[in-house]
Amino acid sequence: MASESVTLFLLCTVVMMIMKIVISFTKRKNYNFPPGPTPLPIIGNVHLLDIRRQDLTLMELAKKYGPVFTFHFGHLKTVVLVGYEANKEALVAANYDFGHRGPIPISDDFQQNHGN
């Protein structure tokens, strides 16, 4: 009986330490991103999305976090811009920050790294 309670205590301690490390690692990397919902460790904010109407889900989040917020698709951080003014400011006024796009895997497959 005593060994089971010690094992359970050690297991709970290890799980809490892992959660603390994951939370501190996630918060440390968010200093340059706009506010957004707190992500879960592996799936991010995907649990908040209505798969059939993703646009409505993001609009509801914009009411809470503002027209520019961070959304986590798993480990991938995405900055969401909602509304004309937010898009105009990002594309015109801050075009240097928002003008670059990440790699697109299907495009890389077609080009086979030619033309980059």
What does this structure look like?
- With 116 residues, the chain is mainly α.
- Helix content is 52%, strand content 10%.
- Strands 1-2 form a two-stranded antiparallel sheet.
- It is elongated.
Short description:
The chain is mainly alpha-helical and 116 residues long.
Number of strands: 2
The quaternary state of the protein chains shown equals single chain
User: How would the global form be characterised?
Assistant: elongated
Strand content: 5-15%
Order of helices and strands: HHEEHHH
Question: What's the end-to-end separation, in Å?
Answer: 65 Å
- Specify the number of helices: 5
- What's the helical proportion of residues? 40-55%
Largest sheet: 2 strands, antiparallel
Main attributes of the structure:
mainly alpha; 5 helices; single chain; 116 residues; two-stranded antiparallel ribbon; 2 strands; elongated
